[in-house]
Write a structure and sequence with these properties.
Layout lengths: L6 H17 L2 H6 L8 H17 L17 H14 L5 H17 L2 H13 L4 E4 L15 E5 L2 E8 L10 E7 L10 E7 L5 E7 L5 E14 L3 E2 L5 H12 L4 H19 L1 E2 L2 E2 L4 H29 L6 H25 L17 H12 L6 H12 L6
Parallel strand pairs: 1-4
Antiparallel strand pairs: 2-3, 3-7, 4-5, 5-8, 6-7, 9-10
Helix pairs in contact: 1-4, 4-8, 5-6, 5-7, 8-9, 8-10, 9-10, 10-11, 10-12
Length: 396
C-alpha cells in the first residue's frame, strides 16, 4: 500500500505549518493550556483564533462552500487537524464538538433552514455548541436517558437534567438528546434538538475537574419551551443521528498528533537530563518505554488515517471509529503514566513551579488522561462495539 500524501497535499501541509508557526498567539504559548483547560483568558484567545481560522476558510475546511467551508478533501482536513494538534493551537474541545461532531450531523439530517441558520455561523467561529447527552442515570447506557420533550402546540416542553456537559457555560446552543416517546423500546423514542442556551428555564451549574478547571457542567431543564422547528431529523429517530455524531467524535487524529509532540518533548528531556552521571536516555527501561509509546502513536495515527480514508470513500466507519477511540484513550493514559515514571517526583509539579519539567505538562496530562476513557463512550463500551460489530460476536 502507498501511504504517501500527494504533492498537493504535502504542499498544503507546508502551508499549514508556516501559518501556525507565524500565527499562534505568543500568549497562548506562554499559558501552555491543553484542550481540557479553560479560563476567561484562554476562552478569549480561543474565540479569536477560531474567527481567524474562519476568515481563512479553515475552521470548516472540508464543508461545502455554501455552508462556509472550502469543499476541500477529508484528507486535507486530516492534515490540518493533525498539524494543529501537533503545534498546540488554541483549538478547544468546543471547536471539536461544534465543527467535528454536531454540525456535520446537522448537515446530514437537518432542514435547509437549519443548515442556513447554524452552519455558516459555526464555520466563521461565531457560535459554539455543547452536547447534551449524559445524565446522572444514563452514561454508558445512553439510550436510557430520561430527559423528556413533550409536544405542546408549536413547541416542545423539555424537562430533565444533563451532566458532564462540556462548555455549557460558554455555549450558544445545546445539541440535545431527549425522550419524545416513553412507551417504545428505549432506542426508538429519542429525538435530537438544537436548544438556544439563553432559553428561560435552563440552569447551568459548574463541575470542577481534577485539574481545578471549570470545563464540565450539570444542566437543568425546567419547562424549557423549544420551537418545533428546532427538532433535527425525524421525531423518535434521534438515536441514529446521535450514533452518527458519536462516530464523528471517536475518529479524530488530534490524539496521536498531540501525543507525538509530548513524546518528542519527553525524549529531549531524557537526552538532556542526567542521573548518576549518565543521561536518562541511556537507561534501558526508559528507552524501552519510550519506544513502546512511539510504536503505539504510529499505530493510532494509521488507524485514524484509515477512518478518514473510509469516510472520504463514503464508507461508514463504525467499529473502526470505536477502535480509534479505544486506542487513543489507552494511549493517552500510557503516555502520561510513562512521563510520570520518567520525571519521578518532579512530575507532580505544576506549571507554576520553576522546577516543573516540561512546564508541568505531564502532571496535567496524567490527571486528564483518566477521564478520556470515559467521555464519548467508555473503553468497555468501545470493546463491546468492536466485539459485536467488528468481530460479529454475540452480545455478552
Amino acid at each position: 500500500m502507498d501511504f504517501r500524501f500527494s504533492a498537493e497535499e504535502e504542499a498544503f501541509r507546508r502551508e499549514v505549518c508556516e501559518f501556525l508557526d507565524r500565527e499562534i498567539p505568543e500568549r497562548w504559548r506562554e499559558l501552555g493550556y491543553g484542550i481540557w483547560e479553560e479560563t476567561d483568558e484562554s476562552w478569549a484567545i480561543t474565540k479569536a483564533w477560531n474567527r481567524k481560522l474562519g476568515e481563512k476558510g479553515w475552521l470548516a475546511l472540508s464543508w461545502p462552500k455554501e455552508h462556509g467551508g472550502q469543499a476541500r478533501s477529508l484528507i486535507e482536513q486530516l492534515i490540518l487537524d493533525e498539524e494543529m494538534a501537533y503545534h498546540g493551537t488554541p483549538t478547544g474541545i468546543e471547536t471539536v464538538m461544534t465543527i467535528g461532531w454536531v454540525c456535520p450531523t446537522i448537515m446530514m439530517f437537518g432542514t435547509e433552514e437549519q443548515k442556513r441558520d447554524y452552519l455558516p455561523k459555526a464555520a466563521k467561529g461565531d457560535i459554539v455548541f455543547c452536547v447534551g447527552y449524559s445524565e446522572p442515570g444514563a452514561g454508558s447506557d445512553l439510550a436510557g436517558l430520561q430527559t423528556r420533550a413533550v409536544e405542546d402546540g408549536d413547541v416542545y416542553v423539555i424537562n430533565g437534567q444533563k451532566i458532564f456537559t462540556t462548555v455549557a457555560h460558554r455555549a450558544d446552543y445545546c445539541w440535545l438528546a431527549a425522550r419524545t416517546d416513553p412507551d417504545v423500546p428505549k432506542h426508538k423514542g429519542i429525538s435530537m434538538f438544537v436548544v438556544d442556551m439563553k432559553t428561560p428555564g435552563i440552569t447551568v451549574r459548574p463541575l470542577i475537574n481534577m485539574l481545578g478547571f471549570h470545563s464540565f457542567n450539570e444542566v437543568f431543564f425546567d419547562d424549557v419551551r423549544v420551537p418545533k422547528e428546532n427538532l433535527v431529523g425525524e421525531k423518535n429517530r434521534g438515536w441514529y443521528q446521535l450514533a452518527v455524531a458519536l462516530d464523528f467524535e471517536r475518529s479524530g487524529v488530534w490524539v496521536p498528533a498531540g501525543a507525538k509532540r509530548t513524546l518528542e518533548e519527553l525524549v529531549e528531556y531524557c537526552k538532556e537530563t542526567q542521573c548518576n552521571g549518565e543521561p536518562l536516555a541511556r537507561d534501558p527501561v526508559i528507552r524501552h518505554k519510550l519506544s513502546e509509546r512511539a510504536v503505539e502513536i504510529e499505530v493510532n495515527r494509521l488507524i485514524c488515517y484509515r477512518i478518514t480514508w473510509m469516510q472520504s470513500k463514503g464508507i461508514i466507519a463504525n467499529y473502526e471509529a470505536s477502535m480509534g477511540k479505544l486506542f487513543s484513550s489507552e494511549l493517552l493514559y500510557r503516555l502520561a503514566n510513562t512521563g510520570m515514571q520518567i520525571l519521578g517526583l518532579h512530575g507532580q509539579l505544576d506549571r507554576g513551579s520553576k522546577w516543573a519539567p516540561l512546564r508541568g505538562k505531564i502532571a496535567r496530562a496524567y490527571l486528564s488522561s483518566h477521564s478520556i476513557g470515559i467521555g464519548g463512550g467508555t473503553s468497555e463500551i468501545q470493546r463491546n462495539i468492536i466485539a459485536m460489530r467488528g468481530l460479529e460476536l454475540p452480545r455478552g
